[in-house]
Amino acid sequence: MAYIEIDDLYDLISEEDLVQLTDDERVGEVNQLLVSGVIAAAESRIENYAGRHYTLPLTADDDVKRMAVVIAVNMVYQRRRGKVPDHIKEQYDEVMGLLKDISQGKAILPGQAAATTPQDNVSRAEVTKDDRVFTKETLKGFG
Questions:
Q1: At residue 114, what are phi and psi to the nearest 5 degrees?
Q2: Is residue 12 a contact partner of residue 76, using CB atoms and an 8 Å limit?
């Protein structure tokens, strides 16, 4: 689910700056495909932190949108200039600190549906029967 659109980024960055940071082909326009990918990555980052305690997708309220915008704009600056303006870096650090606290259960996202069972974002393998392939018998002659 998309929490933000490209136009939402203009709350934090000018269109002129967004063109400069994304126009790798020098056509004088925002690279829509690139920005869409950055937005998807920002939204994924939010879900990775929040998914342990909240049902995904999250509700696209103002808090979630703001976090997505800040993360996406930070990513756009990092990919081209490497130097992120101080006011964006400060907001990014604040958002990432909040997301870390959310993932650890130290902070909440008001208005979001709690996950029915906490997720730990760790993949697990389930073994339902003895699927042993390598035994002393099958390994005879090796080694």
A1: -70, 145
A2: no
- Whole-angstrom distance, CA of residue 107 vs CA of residue 82: 30
| Residues linked to residue 54 through DSSP beta bridges, in sequence order | 114
**pTM as predicted:** 0.80
At 82, the pLDDT band (50, 70, 90 cuts) reads confident
Alpha-helical regions (H) of 51-85: 62-80
DSSP assigned state of 56: S
- Tokens 């600190």 locate to 97
Residues 6+ apart with CB under 8 A from 64: 3, 46, 58, 109, 112
The residues, any chain, with a CB within 8 Å of residue 132's CB and separated by 6 or more, are none
> Tokens 């342990």 appear where?
52
CB 68 within 8 A of CB 92: no
